[in-house]
């Protein structure tokens, strides 16, 4: 008896399932990144962004500010949804652009920050968790954790930020108290009379605009 009579042949339905599964996998691999991982890139706008610090000395409160802010934000298209959005953000500031309005105080500040040796202050976002959402105003509040590098020292920081997305623009604002000594900076004194407290309050408003083509 011929052995070919005992050879089992796959049913047509089996081949159909194999082909359907292969086609589904191919289409999923092609379209899934666009559907599940679609993102928007924002470039920060120095002319609209602002970082300000306030410090307390024996003579009272003084402040410094800069608008020389660079960086980008990468956000999921639908990050307003109640998920933990995979947002990426990097913010860079040149400490030599911080201005207190008094040239002598500026020079003292730049010397403490060693701006030539450490020419950048860098913040990198790590995790984001939605806290509140107001659909009527588009206002979102997030708990964030990131790293902040100042004076060559990098530390993890927790910050609450408010986010508003309007068309192609995104606005992020908040404030954070920092200790200068935590970044290897000794609070300055002058003539043993003028002393500056270790803690400073940093306020920020970061504005980004969607990059064309994204």
Can you walk through the features of this model?
The protein is of the alpha+beta class. It has a single domain (39-210), classed as Beta Barrel (Lipocalin), CATH 2.40.128. It is 17% helix and 49% strand. It contains two helices and eleven strands; from the N terminus they run H-E-E-E-E-E-H-E-E-E-E-E-E. Strands 1-4-5-6-7-8-9-11 form an eight-stranded antiparallel barrel. A hairpin with a 4-residue loop joins strand 6 (121-134) and strand 7. The termini are far apart.
CATH hierarchy, class: Mainly Beta
Query: What is the tally of helical segments?
Result: 2
Our measurement of the CA-to-CA distance between the termini, rounded to an integer number of angstroms, reads: 68 Å
For the sheet with most strands, the description reads: 8 strands, antiparallel, barrel
Strand order within the widest beta sheet: 1-4-5-6-7-8-9-11
Instruction: Give the SSE string.
Output: HEEEEEHEEEEEE
Calculate Rg over CA atoms.
Answer: 27 Å
Poorly predicted runs are 22-36
CATH superfamily descriptor: Lipid/polyisoprenoid-binding, YceI-like
Q: Tell me the helix content.
A: 10-25%
Quaternary form: single chain
CATH topology: Lipocalin
User: Which structural class do you get from the secondary structure elements?
Assistant: alpha+beta
Bulk shape: elongated
């Amino acid at each position: 008896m011929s052995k070919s009579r005992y050879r089992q042949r796959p049913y047509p339905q089996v081949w159909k399932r194999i082909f359907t599964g292969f086609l589904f996998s191919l289409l999923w691999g092609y379209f899934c990144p666009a559907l599940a991982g679609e993102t928007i890139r924002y470039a920060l706008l120095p002319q609209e962004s602002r970082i300000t610090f306030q410090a307390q000395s024996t003579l009272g409160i003084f402040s410094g500010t800069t608008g020389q802010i660079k960086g980008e934000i990468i956000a999921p298209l639908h990050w307003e949804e109640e998920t933990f959005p995979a947002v990426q953000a990097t913010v860079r500031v040149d400490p030599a652009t911080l201005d207190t309005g008094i040239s002598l105080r500026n020079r003292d500040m730049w010397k403490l920050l060693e701006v030539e040796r450490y020419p950048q202050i860098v913040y990198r976002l790590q995790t984001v968790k939605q806290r509140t959402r107001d659909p009527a105003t588009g206002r979102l509040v997030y708990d964030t954790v990131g790293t902040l590098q100042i004076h060559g020292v990098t530390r993890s920081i927790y910050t609450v930020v408010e986010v508003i997305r309007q068309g192609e623009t995104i606005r992020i604002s908040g404030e954070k108290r920092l200790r200068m000594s935590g970044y290897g900076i000794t609070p300055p004194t002058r003539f043993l009379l003028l002393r500056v407290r270790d803690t400073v309050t940093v306020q920020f408003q970061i504005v980004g605009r969607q990059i064309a083509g994204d």
